[in-house]
Design goal:
Elements: H1 4-20, H2 27-41, H3 44-56, H4 70-76, H5 85-108
Helix pairs in contact: 2-3, 2-5
């Protein structure tokens, strides 16, 4: 990572903003989306579907689906935040620098 201080400031800014308003970014679901989207997929709908199946609405293990988290359910009142562009933007903003660094590190090995 060329500028870790810049990326840390970005994450701290996201954290601060999340203290003041709801940010539609859920740990596992946002990671699954960003991981599917970057770099090979580049199709947001396909990446959303993968994130939905792996984390948001897990059919084989529904008890650990993020959409069943009581706090998320309370916050979103039946809305589907995965369908918003805001979810996609936040997921990529948070995870892309980390995923890019992971790829750079793999290429060094």
């Amino acid at each position: 990572m060329e500028e870790p201080g810049k990326e840390l400031r970005n994450l701290l800014q996201i954290y601060w903003e999340g203290l003041h308003r709801k940010i539609p970014c859920f740990g596992n679901t946002s990671y699954q989306f960003a991981n599917a989207y970057w770099p090979e997929e580049q199709d947001p709908e396909a990446a959303i579907q993968k994130a939905r199946n792996k984390a948001w609405n897990r059919y084989k293990q529904p008890e650990i689906s993020e959409n069943r988290d009581p706090y998320i359910s309370l916050f979103y009142h039946g809305e589907n935040p995965l369908q918003t562009t805001e979810f996609r933007e936040w997921a990529l903003r948070i995870w892309n620098p980390l995923l890019q660094n992971r790829e750079e590190r793999k290429s060094l090995e």
